[in-house]
Each structure stands twice: as structure tokens, then as C-alpha cells.
Amino acid sequence: MKRRDFVATSVGGAVGLAGARIVEGAEPTSTLRSFSGALPGSQSVRSLFPRLDDEVFINAAGGTPLGGFAEEAIQRYLDVARLGRTGDRAQWWGETWDGLRGRFATLIGAEEAEIGLVECTKEGEQLVLDGLSALDRGSSVVTNDLHFAGSLHNLEGQRRAGRDVRVVRSQDFAVDLERMADAIDDRTALVTVSLVSNITGHIEPMAELAEVAHAHGAIVFADVIQAAGVVPINVREMGIDVAACSSYKWLYGIHGAGFLYVSRDTQGTVLGDTLFPGGSRRNYPPFVNQVDPGAGPFTYQPPSDARRYQPGHVNYLGYAAVHAGLGFVADIGVASIQEHSVRLNTYLLDRLDRNRYDVLSTHPGESPILALAAHDFEGLRERLTNSDVVVSLGGDKWNLVRISPAVYNTESDMERLAEVLHGA
């Protein structure tokens, strides 16, 4: 699909299985692929993303194109579903499923027992809103307006339903720690923020914010979808109690497969159980030959780790894809990926006409997301529509231009974007 045929103005429009080249019955060439030594921006990396053949795609914050490694994993899972879990297929799926939660745990500095699976980021946040009993007793939720719009909509609904929800407004597209601290008090049960804002790339001072929240007895939830895979995360050093993310952005997965982190100290105590996953055995005749006298009529053995918060069956195909994506990210290295994205944004900033664009980003030296405000937004929209360049337009701000280069982008891509921004 050419850029002239489609302008990405929303998260959902930028990703999916479009462009996937799956060959029916293709046999995989390896059990678990390795990309050790691959350099960001190199042809060996770019060749993994067929969408780049037709587009200059600089919208990873909206969702990364399907990579060849994820496509292969999807096909392999389809073969498991189609042909059965035997032989090499059983070995591959066993390695994939058993290693999935551990791979994500390593990425964010957690333990495997602290990782569960959720469909999307908002599901993880909702588990916290549902599981914190203090919120039902009048305690407050504190956030800011650089949080994800879908979360703000949910929280506004919570406010209208009677909950105490406090939204700190940004100033110049930044939120000072002091202003967040002023909104947090001893009645606050939850502080929920985006570690990296999807609007401007603003990075929250998580450790300092968590210190304030914890001093008042609150827990901290972090939406890490714009950080996981591109900004280094250590949940312990940052003081994060619960975090969640989907996988279709910087983790190179697809929709419907996300991760939940719940610290050991929070599981089952501060954050109560609301789903109770598992399966009961009917402990009475005619279902059993011998009744277990200590088990009750229905056996009950809930998970004792973060899997207690996840539903039953999940999107196995999606998790096959993101398992491959996590391997890709680990092989190249998060620090290397972050440096590459930041360097490309800096490259563009050095060529930007500041008389035509305002820079909204507050952390251009750290964040993979660069946000601009276009003085002639409609003119830019028309130029992008007629070009092969994909960035995100509008959305959270009427004249927002959001640029988010990933591991597959190059200086040539940024040169092409600069041409379109300036009228070529």
C-alpha cells in the first residue's frame, strides 16, 4: 500500500498483517532465530520488514510493520494448529511458550513469576482499577493529561461514576514532579501514568514519582507500551508496582498479545484477585471414584504468581509473534535501539525549519518519539498524502506531527521526511 493511498492518523491504521508474505506449508529454517551482531539501520535489519519496500515508515509509536521473524513465528504456530503439536513443531512451541514470560521479565528487570498475560495495556490498568479495594472506599486515582487517551477516557468514566480521579494538566507538554506531588495525598491509592507519553515522548521521572506515591501508601501503575523494547526499564529501580503493555509497537508483535507485571509484594495482597483463573475438579460422585475429603465439592488451586490476573486461553498466535520480537530486541539490545532512534531524531532536528515547526518534545535526547506542531498542518497533510512517507498526524493535538524512527530506519529516511516537511 502506497503512502499516497493512505495517511496514518491513528494507532490502529498503521499496523496489522498487511504486507505479510506467508508461504503455505513453508518449512522454517531454524528453531529460534538469532540476530546477534545485527546493526540498527543496516540492510540486514531493513530486509526483515517488507513494508519498507514501498514506504518510508517512521511511525513505530503507532505500531511497527510485521517483521520476517514474527511472520515466520506466526506461520509456525499456524502449522502447529493445522498439523498438530508433534516432533519439531512440539519442540518449537514448547521453547516458545515456556520462554515467553521469562523473556519479557528480563527486558524489564523483573522475575518470571511477576509476569502475566493480558490482551492489551488498558486491560492491565483495568485490573488495577478493579483490584484495589481502597478505590471503592473513596480513595483517589492520580494521573496526568500526557497519559494515553484511551486510559483518560476510561478514567473520566470512572470519575463520572463517582470515583475521585485527579488529572494534572501539563504545561508546555511537560508535567513537573512537584505538580504531581501536590495532587497525591494520604487518600491516594493509585498513581497511573505512561512511562513514555505517546503524544510527545515525555518521560516520567518514575523513581521520584514512585517515592512520592509510596510515601502516601499508594501504588504506581506504568503504561510502558512506548518504552518496552526501546527505552531501558528496570521496574525495581523505578519503583513500579504494576505495569502493562501491548506488543505491536516496539516489541514487534501484533495486536491482542500483551504483558502484565505485578510485583511480588503487590500480588494477592494490595492488588486483589478478580478473575480466579483455573479449572475445578468436581469432587463428588459420579465424577470421581474417590472423594477428597479436604477439597470441598469443587477443587480450587489458583495460580500463586502473576498468572492469577490473566484469563484462560490467550492469543497464542500473537504470543508466537512477540516471542520472536522479544528475541529480536534482545539480540540487538535496547540501549543500541534507543541510541539509534534518538540519533535519527536529532538528525532531523538539525535540519528542521523552526519557523515552520515548533518542537513539543521535552526529552529529545532520550525519547524515541519526536513531536512537532506544524504551522501549516493542512499543507503538510496534503504533501504526506502524496508521498511515500508514513508518520502520525493529528490525534491528541490538532496539528501534531509525531515521528518515531525504529531500528529499521536510516538517515536517508529522515532526509526524505525533511523534504516532505519542507515542501518537496
Task: Describe this protein's structure.
The protein is α/β, with parallel strands linked by helices and 424 residues long. The chain is built from twelve helices and 13 strands. The strands form three sheets. The protein has a seven-stranded mixed sheet with strand order 2-8-7-6-5-3-4, sandwiched between helices. It has a four-stranded antiparallel sheet with strand order 9-10-13-12. Helix 5 (149-160) links the parallel strand 3 (140-144) and strand 4 (164-168). Helix 2 crosses helix 3 (87-108), helix 2 (68-83) packs antiparallel against helix 9 (316-332) and helix 10 (334-349) packs parallel to helix 12 (411-421). The longest helix has 22 residues, at 87-108. Residues 1-31 have low confidence and may be disordered.
What topology emerges from the helices and strands here?
Blueprint lengths: L42 H4 L9 E2 L10 H16 L3 H22 L6 E4 L2 H11 L8 E5 L4 H12 L3 E5 L8 H7 L4 E7 L11 H10 L3 E5 L11 H4 L3 E5 L11 E5 L53 H17 L1 H16 L7 E3 L10 E5 L2 H9 L3 E2 L1 E2 L6 E4 L7 H11 L3
Parallel strand pairs: 1-11, 3-4, 3-5, 5-6, 6-7
Antiparallel strand pairs: 2-8, 7-8, 9-10, 10-13, 12-13
